[in-house]
Amino acid sequence: MSDQRIVRPTPISGFPEWSPQIRAVEQQWLDHIRAGFESFGFASIETPSVENLETLMAKGETSQEVYTLHRLQADGKDDSDARLGLHFDLTVPFARYVAQHFNELTFPFKRYQMQRVWRGERPQEGRFREFTQCDIDVIDVDSVPLHFDAELPRIIHRVLSGLDIPAWTLSVNNRKVLQGFYEGVGIKDPIVVIRAVDKLHKIGDDGVREILLADGLTGEQIDACLRLARVKDTGAAVADQVRALGVESELLEEGLTELAFVLNDLSDLPEGSVVADLSIARGLDYYTGTVYEASFDDDPEYGSICAGGRYENLAGQFIRRKLPGVGLSIGLTRIFAKLVAEGRITEGRMCPTDVMVVVPGADSRTDALRTGELLRSRGFDTEVFHSTAKIGKQLQYASKKGIPFVWFPPFDEDGNHEVKDMGTGEQGAADPRTWSPHNTQGQNSG
Amino acid sequence: MSDQRIVRPTPISGFPEWSPQIRAVEQQWLDHIRAGFESFGFASIETPSVENLETLMAKGETSQEVYTLHRLQADGKDDSDARLGLHFDLTVPFARYVAQHFNELTFPFKRYQMQRVWRGERPQEGRFREFTQCDIDVIDVDSVPLHFDAELPRIIHRVLSGLDIPAWTLSVNNRKVLQGFYEGVGIKDPIVVIRAVDKLHKIGDDGVREILLADGLTGEQIDACLRLARVKDTGAAVADQVRALGVESELLEEGLTELAFVLNDLSDLPEGSVVADLSIARGLDYYTGTVYEASFDDDPEYGSICAGGRYENLAGQFIRRKLPGVGLSIGLTRIFAKLVAEGRITEGRMCPTDVMVVVPGADSRTDALRTGELLRSRGFDTEVFHSTAKIGKQLQYASKKGIPFVWFPPFDEDGNHEVKDMGTGEQGAADPRTWSPHNTQGQNSG
Questions:
Q1: Any CB–CB contact under 8 A between A105 and chain B?
Q2: Model confidence over A378-427: pLDDT tens digits?
Q3: Nearest C-alpha in A relative to B101
Q4: Which pairs from A295-304 meet CB under 8 Å and 24+ separation?
Q5: A17 touches chain B (CB under 8 A)
Q6: In chain A, whose CA is at the least distance from the CA of B31?
Q7: Which of A294, A382, B25, B46 could form a disulfide with A306 if both were Cys (CB 3.0 to 4.6 A apart)?
Q8: What's the gap in Å between the CA of B43 and the closest CA on chain A?
Q9: What pLDDT does residue A282 have?
Q10: Is the peptide bond before A410 cis (omega within 30 degrees of 0)?
């Protein structure tokens, strides 16, 4: 061994990895999110980690830093892999999936997708090269009911409320409101303003003013845009606040009606869970109606932890059908890794074990194994100790691993066994056929 | 839209993708396997999809076709990604993980890992470029108790028995038996024989004989090797069968004792679940004791669906500690995709929805949403219909999606509601605060 060269492993920047205790919490989060998505009837899909480069680039976006795959030992006979890239989000693969499986699906198609995605970025705080996204989208043929614009924030509320994370706010806006308002004050190219307003929280009023002046807007137009961006309300009354700004257009009115519908539908949620915030723009071109963005109240600078919106026709590059949709994506790794780094995740247990069965000697091994199987069949995650080490050593292992109950002989068939509660130190008689953690007949021997 | 170029999506060879109905079954399988692993107290870990190429190549294996990552838009300033490759199994990442996190772990470290892996192979039946492996391993410092050599087949038995798959057999052997036996008949380089015997099922006795003759073995030695490979038994008596061949060596005796221990420990499992098969060699050099291989009884040609064994020091390249282990890997995609291709997977439901709440008109929307929340809070996955379409159309949607129960007004607060069992057509009164699928008060109106 000593003559062998040691390749000392080091973490790879941008590719998070957790200890078993942290991974246990991540797994709980994933289970919780999945259960939340399914509780609204959304179906799971997964797509391959790779797409053809043509698919990844179909939206015309080349700004994403795509990882392409190459074979280390290419044999020269097959270069098909050179056209493959790791997906950088789950939206493009979803659009491709719907187009490809169009005839097999029932619409509206309600799906969730929880997978790793990759971006070849230079790593920085809160940015990862590999991370998990939890996406939920509805896609339909020709049009998508507004029902879903309101249902998605309800789902996100249910999901995020159940995670032990710092306070957050989900903001809602509507691109028709922005576009209609901008057009109403005589702006020719609303998307320029949308992109500028999207930066408002980072660069402030003055920064936005500078950009828009350079784009040729009048001071009056800019003032109107900034006034709109200041509108914020927790209820459907937000529409009246916007109308009070005195700008009129058909599109604006349409957007306000949609926004009010969404807020009205969500009025049963706790006050402040969902807020209309007219400064939320979302930079991406493909949003056409409702847009969403959630961030931490105590760290808005960290940026969005969950975002999405309504799009008119995301799969148009793949199929000659109009397939509009609305979706939201939770940046699981963005949230989780931040809290890990800040020490705000309470570590889970080192192992799932509920009960450890001691093995006092080789002659009790068969009985111990049988007891283990019996406890497992009753739903308890059970370890049978892996040797006939001294009982003290076996208990030490259970204690170190945080196993809550240790099982003792006699392992007789009539159920005459003993169990020790490692938390309280109590030990008492227990029948493996009927025992539960709540009916341990404690006799304090600790 | 019509002037847009359509990039018609096609499946990418070697990268499987499922419909929602098939994905639902895959998800059940994954849940079941995970529960099986956890029922023995194994902890979950995940590692990044990539490793440094140095890590991937540390075992000296270059035969694996590794996918390396490259950035599509490399800016020339950071070529660190060029040293990254997608992992081709979960064993190498696990060994690296244990070495890297050595001081944080409690030994014996019992972990499972269920992740995608990638191999840049030319696709062929049963081979994938991206596939999911479900690995379970125990790693320990200096030595690993033999307990685990017997526990792993028990876990695999529990896991595979719970899946709706064709009959399979888990074969066990011990490399010490092979090596000791070969040495006992005077063979200098047992690994050559191990590699030849590993091909026995494919090339037959004559093929093995040819290889070994070319390697300089005598006819007598080859006959002995082939006699050993024919030994097969379901119980610990296999040791006596081997001893009856009249070959003696210390290592052989050690191996037979280990093999008998494993078989004896598993004697409570149904007859034939685990079989000692002395022709099982496993080609990989790093196995040093127990080896495992499972295949389908009706299609042994398909090769192993689950395999593994004991290794002496897999992490020796990463840390100056001896860290032996024993592990098994289930080729989930290999099994699942084969059964999908053969039409042997019974499709799951199109969506997880238990109940769909109808929305007869805009004025009952709030009540319908409240009812949906109430049913969800009671654990039922519930869709509230997404529009106020005619009831017939709403029922049609529920029927098409296979939703088992449809909920009807009046949605009054006193629980005066109605529910229809879509399977039987029965419809009757139901209180959303107490209803369960089993207490539907049926009044046949179907």
A1: yes
A2: 999 999 999 999 999 999 999 999 999 999 999 988 888 999 999 999 99
A3: A19
A4: A295/A168, A295/A169, A295/A171, A296/A165, A296/A166, A296/A167, A296/A168, A297/A166, A297/A167, A297/A168, A297/A169, A298/A166, A298/A167, A299/A166, A300/A201, A302/A126, A302/A338, A303/A126, A304/A331
A5: yes
A6: A31
A7: A294
A8: 5
A9: 84
A10: yes
Interchain pair B23, A8: CB under 8 A: no
pLDDT tens-digit map of B54-105: 888 876 665 568 999 988 765 555 555 668 999 999 999 999 999 999 999 9
Residue numbers of B between 133 and 162 with CB closer than 8 Å to A: 138, 145, 147-148, 151, 158
Interstrand relation of A287-296 and A168-174 (parallel, antiparallel or unpaired): antiparallel
- Using the Cβ of B3 and the Cβ atoms of chain A, whether some distance falls under 8 Å is answered with no
Give B-chain residues touching A53 at CB under 8 angstroms. 72
pLDDT in tens, B110-132: 999 999 999 988 767 667 999 99
Choose the closest CB to B47 out of A17, A44, A317. A17
pLDDT at A274 over 80: yes
Q: Which of A27, A97, A369 sits opposite B44 (nearest CB)?
A: A27
Cα–Cα distance measured from residue A156 to residue A33, given in angstroms and rounded to the nearest whole number: 9
Task: Determine the distance in angstroms separating the CA of B96 from the nearest CA of chain A, rounded to an integer.
Answer: 6
Cis status of the peptide bond prior to A437, with omega within 30 of 0 = no
* ipTM metric: 0.94
Q: Does A70 touch chain B (CB under 8 A)?
A: yes
B122 at interface of A, judged by CB pairs closer than 8 A: yes
- DSSP state at residue A294: E
B15 contacts on A by Cβ (under 8 Å): 48-50
For the ranges A4-13, A203-212, B71-80, the maximum mean pLDDT occurs at A203-212
More confident residue, B3 or A391: A391
Tokens for A384, please give them: 């049978």
pLDDT grade, residue B444 (50/70/90)? very low
What token pair was written down for B154?
Answer: 């028990």
B18 with A68: Cβ contact below 8 A: no
Averaged over A133-154, what is the pLDDT? 97
CB spacing of B145 vs A386 below 8 angstroms = yes
β-pair type (A443-444, A417-421): unpaired
| Residue A357: φ, ψ to 5° | -95, 125
- Residue A122, classed as helix, strand or coil, is coil
Give the global pTM: 0.95
B397 vs A contacts (CB less than 8 Å): 106
Report the candidate in A293, A306, A301 with the shortest Cα–Cα distance to residue A171.
A293
